[in-house]
Specification:
alpha+beta, Ribosomal Protein L22, Chain A, three-stranded antiparallel β-sheet, 4 helices
Length: 130
């Protein structure tokens, strides 16, 4: 049974502008330590799209949980890489802190996430199941 659905579209130029203005402060507010390391390991040319995709996925997950930013922090939601295990697999979502408590209260047992990006935008779609 579906518990929640969320979608988010992010402008890559907007994310780049925020990143350029706020630097590490922005990254530490949005990414977990593992996500930050994964970003640092990516080729420079793909980092902006990677970051925008993660940002969109976290916003979509907040919407699927039924809460926007404020009650749930970006770092309460983590995208874990599964491509090291199975190259064709999408990233998986892990919930921490307030997001984990909300997910547990709503009976979430599985989170599906799909990410895509082009030249100007990144989009993420999240479906939570009970």
């Amino acid at each position: 049974m579906i518990v929640g659905i969320g979608v988010d579209l992010v402008d890559l130029a907007r994310i780049a502008a925020i990143w350029n203005t706020h630097g590490d402060r922005f990254l530490s507010r949005v990414l977990t330590a593992a996500e930050r390391q994964a970003l640092d390991e990516r080729p420079q040319a793909t980092r902006r799209a990677h970051l925008a995709g993660r940002f969109a996925a976290k916003e979509a997950a907040m919407k699927a949980l039924g809460y926007g930013f404020g009650r749930v922090r970006f770092t309460d939601i983590e995208l874990t890489a599964t491509r090291n295990v199975v190259p064709t697999q999408p990233p998986a979502l892990a919930f921490h802190g307030a997001a984990a408590r909300i997910a547990a209260a709503r009976g979430v047992v599985h989170a599906h996430v799909s990410l895509s990006h082009g030249e100007a935008h990144a989009v993420a779609y999240v479906v939570l199941e009970r």
